[in-house]
Here is the input.
Amino acid sequence: IWGRSKYVGVSLVGKTLAVMGFGKVGSEVARRAKGLGMHVIAHDPYAPADRARAVGVELVSFDQAISTADFISLHMPLTPTTKKVFNDTTFSKMKKGARLINVARGGVIDEDALVRALDCGIVAQAALDVFAEEPPAKDSKLVQHENVTVTPHLGASTKEAQEGVAIEIAEAVIGALNGELSATAVNAPMVPAEVLSELAPYVQLAEKLGRLAVQLVAGGSGIQTIKVSYITARGPDDLDTRLLRAMITKGIIEPISDMHINLVNADFTAKQKGLRISEERVSVNSSPENPIDSIQIQIPSVQSKFESTITEKGDISIEGKVKDGIPHLTRVGSFAVDVSLEGNIILCRQVDQPGMIGKVGIILADHNVNVNFMSVGRTSKKQKAIMAIGVDEEPEEDALRKIGQVPAVEEFVFLKL
Here is the structure.
């Protein structure tokens, strides 16, 4: 938009952009500006800090924003508080040579004061899409000023924009009905699209670990507390766990109720159910390229259908990680396993001896149950072992009964995903 010849070629790298108003549009401008190599700060008295952190933006005071920025982009509503908030006093606090962009409302700027700021060089350029009076008068000093670029505020009224919005709405509704993640829900915590993309396989892992955990709890044992540990190399400000917590809640509650859990109602529903979920980050010295190394879920003070999931502390404990984009179960109690969380799972604890895999495999084959993944974890040679078997189909009761009758099998459980 900086079309005057003497300003062509101004580099944005390293320049500071102040986004005034950090709603949907302001945050999208911030994301794009960061992609251009700019340092982005924002002022918005109502913006939550986690929204700014998710985009990598620092929230600052109004005076700090206008006094340090090279570029100031306005995205605030017109209210009694913001009316002519950019006036002679405001312009006097700006860095000399700042550039001002207004795509919000014309009334937030005192237009006569802006002309004076342009004339004395405090504002080097202004790009204006809105005016106090629209359309502005033909003889407007602001419109005629050589350092002002104007546009007619018609972006959302074009045929292309209307089609784009209609398509976006339809895709968002279909995605929500299919249970997919959404970055545009107005009544949910803001999770940027790139964060959703990065966390997508971990979201699947979180929900499936929740489903496994609740099925391991023996009937009659009420779940009151769940502890979730995120093993990660990233710092607290670089890992937004709200989505993961919601999906763990979804995995735990949906199999035992008729409720539908999503990012909007997860915390509220958990509170209604008397379910307290605590979270912790466990730092590891690994590559921060992946947001999470593994997720561990522990349920204290309950009985288990599969005793081998109980730790020395008496908690049900399972752990999983993402491998090549696919969720895997990697630990059951104190036993290390490695089974893909696709389809369903059979867990068997047996005496570690030859032929166990074959015996269980034959039973499943005789009942036309396909094995898609298998792993064995053991305490030591010829001692106790856990066999984790991924199966595509749900075995019939007869198949499960025969597995339980294998002499070396001490306990088993079928878990439906």
About this structure: The longest strand covers residues 225-232. DSSP finds twelve helices and 17 strands in the chain.
